[in-house]
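Researcher: Here's the sequence for the chain we discussed earlier.
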Amino acid sequence: MLKVNNISKNYGKVQAVDGLSFECREGEIFGLLGENGAGKTTTFRIIMGLIDANQGSVTLEGAPIDYTKTDQIGFVTEERSLLTKLTVEEQAQFYGALKGMSQEEIDKALSYWLEKFEISSYRTRKIKELSKGNQQKIQFICAIMNHPKLLILDEPFTGLDPINVKMLKDAIYDLKKEGCSIIFSSHQMEYIEEFCEKLVILVKGKAILNGYLNEIKKAYGIKQIEIIGEVQREDFEKIKGIKAIKKHQNKWILSIQNEEVVDKVFQAIRSRKIYKFEAIEPTLNEIFIEKVGSLK
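Model: Thanks. This is the structure I predict for it:
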């Protein structure tokens, strides 16, 4: 388990991270969100032991992260971090050796992952000859070939088409099943919603939301109702708590103040012929925009 306890980091007068705490358990995928400059990269660097926090602590499996632990951490950066003049095999051998793997272990792991990602024929090709998507696959392989205890994924799907995104998703789920703790960062909120049970949203280095996604959504509340049926605008206009009424094709979309309005709307139209009545949970994207936007 990764435990981040009250870490802070400043660069002069700039507070990059401010009292951040969270836990990522074995087999858990944790979301770390924030706009550019929110403190995510600094947090990653502290976790990996690349820089020291001014206060607080980070432990992996109960021990501080030092050179005895860094081999157990995999990191897939948004920017390519490959040596482009090397071949795929040479790149894997280099990173594998840094992680303390034997030649036999490196060859076995590389063969497995190249086949899984359907790029076995690229083994002897230079990195610079590969497409951006295939370079991302190689970067992922180099990060996980030694089965890390902790994997940090920063925009891992950059440059990948839908087929290759699915391949990477499947690999991430396999690592989760093995018990790997995974920190996932992305600006594409649909991926965070798909993968993460827990998350933190950072603004200027400080957590403004921290917890389980389902609990965050529940606290945010139902804000929209979708209705398809034999109803008219005047059915809704006198109901208190409805903020906006829109119609898109045959569907009515009501923006509401809180969940109490749901029952009021249902009672008002219950005698009508209704084909669909659904209280819509907020998306993570909506929550992010409201929470972050309110602080600007």
